[in-house]
Amino acid sequence: MEKGQKIGYLLNEWMVGWLLLYALVIVVVAMFYGDATTLSDHLEEGLTFLAISVVMLGPFLVVKWLTVRRSKQRTTPIDQTASPGGGR
Q1: pTM to 2 decimals?
Q2: What's the alpha-carbon Rg for the chain, to the nearest Å?
């Protein structure tokens, strides 16, 4: 896969929709923590955002990464030292 193909694959319309949903969830959580005043409140808010991000985005990113990796392995020639003419 070339760089443009990877970007198009990773940011297809479904992924953009999921990212918007996750952004909405984070906004709702931020509204819940709107009255955070102490350092521990802000740390709890940050850890909550991190946990939400890992749980919601982690599986998608792992599957996409594995798919791109398999595609690279499939399209990479087995013997890169072979001559292009087939040894003629």
Answers
A1: 0.49
A2: 21
